[in-house]
Amino acid sequence: MASTRDLGFFGPGSVSWQVHREVTVLFGGARAVLMQAAHPLVIAGARESGFYERNPWKRLQRTLILTYTITFGTKAEALAAAERINDVHTRIKGVDPETGLPYDALDPELLLWVHACLVDSALLFEELTVGKLDAAGRQRFHEEQMLAAEMVKVPREIIPPTVADLRAYVRDMAAGNELRVTDSARKVAELFMDPPKEAEWRPILRGVSRLAFATLPPRLREAYGFRVGPAKELAMRATFAATRFARPLLPPKYRYIAPYAAWRMRQRGKEPPPDLEDAHRRAGIRLDRAKSISDPG
Question: Residue 9: pLDDT band by 50, 70, 90 thresholds?
Answer without folding.
Answer: very high
